[in-house]
Amino acid sequence: MSGAQNDAASPDKPEEEMTPSSGEGDKEKEEDGEEASGSLARLLSMLTLGQQTTGERHQKLLTDFSLKGIVGIVQKIQSSEENKRRIIVMTGAGISTAAGIPDFRSPGTGLYDNLQKYNLPDPQAVFHIGYFRRNPKPFCMLAKELYPTNFKPTLSHYFIRLLAEKGLLLRNFTQNIDGLERRAGLNPDLLVESHGGFSTAHCIDCGHQYSEQFVKDCVFRDEIPRCTRETCRDTKTATEEAEKKKGGGEGEEGEEGEGEEGEGGEVKGLVKPDIIFFGEALPDRFATCIKEDMIKCDLLIVMGTSLLVHPFASLVDRVRDDCPRLLINREKVGEGDVMMRLMGFSSGLDFGEETGYRDVFHKANCDDGCRDLADMLGWKAELEEMVAREHAKLDDQQTQ
Ligand code: OAD
Question: Which residues carry a binding-site annotation for NAD(+)?
Fold first, then answer.
């Protein structure tokens, strides 16, 4: 899960050429009263007409704005003499729903619609670092359900692995914390877990590292994981106590702060799995990889995400202008700001018939979209064989 409405971690806007919309000189403008107001009027009239300069200026990069066009791009990359690792895949919770893991925002079934029992001020609070500091219980209770256990990777996860095995995958940037990419056997070098994961944990006060097992054991015993280091002290509790001594009375949130260590004993820092909460910075690897990878990308595939959480969502703007982009999702997402585009900035995906020149939306479940793509590429049997083989292996491991 992710973090990330964290502006501080937000990558800079790409410095692309400005393509302001008007352009022509002012000579003829006075001839006609309606056109006399210059570039602003022109800009506005383009908006009204639904035209965009980008659409006019960029040549269409695809001969076909369906999976067929994307297949052509993959084949081109595959037949290239140069390094073929040119495809980036961006993923979100939608690639794991077929495994039985809910996404976050789908109405009714999404996690955020099903957290009533935790009495949160708002559903996202459960992943907010400030809220966690004050009241770690809801997250710890939820963590029991979230711990990656026996879920099996979906066909979409194996499709990504197939791209890797064919030497085409440059990187999979995922927002997911379910660990299914690794479980599917994707080489971790090809993976960026942008919103972290459960495999390690840290004390949020002294920074001491803990194992996944440490936290898991605590939460399954219904205990709040606390640091065990002698010198560690929960800074929030320490501050509250200091205030009390000064005569400040109760700490801030009266309803929270269970004081589970009690008895005048010192409360040590909370230990949290290294999933990135709202209000925390993204892993360094995220920044390093976007810097290295995005420029090299010749095809961006986006799957199963609402593209609502930044800075992850803005990765679609970090590829080159001549990089085709495919969205496989149940709904159209990530469409950018028309005004920004008019001003020549990259801004989200553009599926407009007139204005779009490189983006394809394939409305489907991720697994179906990946299967169709594999079929058109002649990889379907190989993909399905991989899924069956790997699922059988996981079943075996479970019965041992
Ligand atoms: P969301 O729940 O926001 O979006 C999932 C998207 O996938 C939606 O557009 C769904 O319609 C679509 N979808 C669901 N199942 C699908 C399927 N089988 N096939 C195709 N599309 C499907 O999830 P994310 O975008 O991953 O962060 O959420 C991003 C971040 O927001 C998470 O990392 C998490 C959350 O807050 C934190 O927890 C801090």
Answer: 93-97, 103-105, 175-178, 305-306, 329-331, 366
Calpha distance 210→201 (Å, rounded): 5
Catalytic residue check, 391: no
Q: Which amino acid is at 185?
A: G
Give all strands (DSSP E) within the chain, no chain letters. 87-91, 169-174, 191-193, 196-203, 209-211, 271-275, 299-303, 325-329, 359-363
The verdict on the CB of residue 97 being under 6 Å from ligand 1 is yes
Write the pLDDT tens digit of every residue in 252-301: 443 444 445 444 467 899 999 999 999 999 999 999 999 999 999 999 99
Please name every residue paired with 292 in a beta bridge, in sequence order, or none if there are none. none
pLDDT digits 0-9 by tens, 115-146: 999 999 999 999 999 999 999 999 999 998 88
What one-character DSSP code corresponds to residue 54? H
Binding-site annotation, residues for Zn(2+): 203, 206, 227, 232
Counting Cα atoms < 13 Å in the Cβ hemisphere of 309 gives 28
Nearest by Cα to 327 from 294, 297, 360, 299:
360
Q: What pTM was computed for the model?
A: 0.83
Which is the closest atom of ligand 1 to the Cα of 368? 19
